[in-house]
Amino acid sequence: xxxxxxxxxxxxxxxxxxxxxxxxxxxxxxxxxxxxxxxxxxxxxxxxxxxxxxxxxxxxxxxxxxxxxxxxxxxxxxxxxxxxxxxxxxxxxxxxxxxxxxxxxxxxxxxxxxxxxxxxxxxxxxxxxxxxxxxxxxxxxxxxxxxxxxxxxxxxxxxxxxxxxxxxxxxxxxxxxxxxxxxxxxxxxxxxxxxxxxxxxxxxxxxxxxxxxxxxxxxxxxxxxxxxxxxxxxxxxxxxxxxxxxxxxxxxxxxxxxxxxxxxxxxxxxxxxxxxxxxxxxxxxxxxxxxxxxxxxxxxxxxxxxxxxxxxxxxxxxxxxxxxxxxxxxxxxxxxxxxxxxxxxxxxxxxxxxxxxxxxxxxxxxxxxxxxxxxxxxxxxxxxxxxxxxxxxxxxxxxxxxxxxxxxxxxxxxxxxxxxxxxxxxxxxxxxxxxxxxxxxxxxxxxxxxxxxxxxxxxxxxxxxxxxxxxxxxxxxxxxxxxxxxxxxxxxxxxxxxxxxxxxxxxxxxxxxxxxxxxxxxxxxxxxxxxxxxxxxxxxxxxxxxxxxxxxxxxxxxxxxxxxxxxxxxxxxxxxxxxxxxxxxxxxxxxxxxxxxxxxxxxxxxxxxxxxxxxxxxxxxxxxxxxxxxxxxxxxxxxxxxxxxxxxxxxxxxxxxxxxxxxxxxxxxxxxxxxxxxxxxxxxxxxxxxxxxxxxxxxxxxxxxxxxxxxxx
Length: 713
Description:
Growth Hormone, Chain: A; 3 domains; 54% helix; five-stranded mixed beta sheet
């Protein structure tokens, strides 16, 4: 900045910042602000897709689509924020104003997750879902505008606080700054899922999404207040124009000028950007050419982000169908995302200090573009791993009936064993007070069922596309009851539990979290969702039973404690361990280190220093496009099996790898500083030539002037 070369002006703008250990005191406020803001953003984002699925009750595809639309907006708005800061408000005011917008958005999300606001019948479910959807969408829009708008400003504003003689301190600041980003991300993805897993509410207890969003909202308010407290200490550079606008204007002029001179009578120029020479400086045009070479390489890059950002959507949804019990530790599905920042902090130093130097010692020319290609390939391997994990999960999932099928389970409510004959099946021996091991599948709406000896035969009506249980009474001439069973796994890792009363008297069943109420003789209760451990109380009889993500039916047939209940497991619990996801997280993080870190480093090395903002905008734009690709595939592909979608994404990225490697093969590395120096040298020579030409003219004019003076005398 020009201000930094003017000591008086710099002192005037910098405020009253003191130095601590050689660092401006103002940067400590900026670092704390960044940590709180990143905690706020990643904490909210960690539980977002589960909020869509379980609170707003959206299906997986819609939840994935809206999630990636939000992420895409978060990476589009930085371009707007940079332009506003550099051309109008300045970085300080932009950060303040958009942080207020950001905080309002976070508060809106927290309020939208309070189910009691519209739960008029107090059943634990919102009665006006439109209100919650509308408020959450407004909140997400404000958050996208806020987080994206301040993203390009905070780091640059922190860098502005250092003088030209503090290069070492500035580098240390940026290291600490990015450490705060990863620290905030790591802590928030551990803490907010734990909060979400709690139950809270005024009239009824439900998963605590309101507090899971409320804590990030509070952190964003803290971030804003901390930043404001340091206001008097900041050096606030005046807006000096945005280079992106200049670049866009120059490119647009070149395109228009080329179109005007499209006739063959005009001679061709070496590069289409040369058509801007009539209006713009040749050095600027040369700089834009260098940037365009890099931006051309960006074209295939969105496909990497298409896969990478599914950590927070598809992979989190995948984890909901897995077992997070690691013995002493129980992991929530949305907590698996913490593996990524942990691996980032581990792999970056390992790759930089061990792997890359080792490859170099082996004599291999592992260029930045080759690293990026390998990084993309690692991401495709991660999705192959995800597909294999999904196949293992599918093996544990029950086979539910199609729309043209029905399924039936048998429960013998008597004490004596019976024989049951079902159409198309062998005779089944059913012990007393026991149920059949699995469901029988039929493709007709009515079947003849024969039970006992002598056989009692009845016509049983089945519901197509449903699962049912036939309650067989001890006296076969009495009514045969049919219960409707679940046709999907219970949500949020809970267990669907009901009771069947096999006695000739009323039974009252209660648990610490659910009161099942009175169950009539030879009848059944409704399903209730209970967490991992339930303590069931029947009069003076207690039964402890541990289970997870399953459907259970408790058949009560006497008052002999601990011997009077048959546990029937209609849907088996999640058995695929979340540990199976660790390989896919490893490969996607390895891909991120090789692709993202190397990509930014390469981009900055191949473009002029004053064009870094343009490259950052282009890089963020590839992230946004990648997220839009996810929602397009999610809405249009509609593949029957989730593992096939993972394979599709992996295949697309492999194809893009080959395209990118071809582009990289023909790319020529340049030194922007050297090219700029050549142009500046040429400009200086042109100026010298102009001076040499002007000297004879000046001497001649001087002679004429002297002659005129002599004649006057």
